[in-house]
Amino acid sequence: MPQFLFKVLEVKTLKDGVENTELTNKIAIVNAEVLDKESGKTIYTGNFNVKFNKDGVYPAIKMINAIDALKYIKTELIFRSKRYIKRLRKWL
Q1: Strand (E) positions, 14-83?
Q2: Exposed/middle/buried for 10, CB within 10 Å: 0-12, 13-18, 19+?
Q3: Which single residue of 22, 49, 58, 89 has CA 20 to 30 Å from 6?
Q4: H helices within 5-70, ranges in order?
């Protein structure tokens, strides 16, 4: 069973000409580490982008699919990173 660890490295605001701060799009650069709980080995370590705004959270699926890992790991990275950023969204 893998363990997923996330850390936000940087948050960038995308300028789109809209002055309403609620509709501002941001990109979080997330560092992810996937560990095997039983052996303690690192399965994956790397960074990817997660775009978010008031309406939703959108991980960079192309970046995650480029990872050399099992499909299960990629799918879990997408869903768990989305949940992680969604909880932190109001403080980022």
Answers
A1: 26-36, 42-52, 57-59
A2: exposed
A3: 22
A4: 61-65
pTM: 0.84
pLDDT digits (tens, 9 = 90+) for 53-67: 888 999 999 999 999
Closest CA to 6 of 38, 41, 47, 60: 47
pLDDT the model gives residue 18: 61
From the list 80, 79, 77, 57, the residue with the least C-alpha distance to 65 is: 77
- Could you tell me how far CA 17 lies from the centroid of its own chain? 25
Specify the residue for token string 């960074």.
47
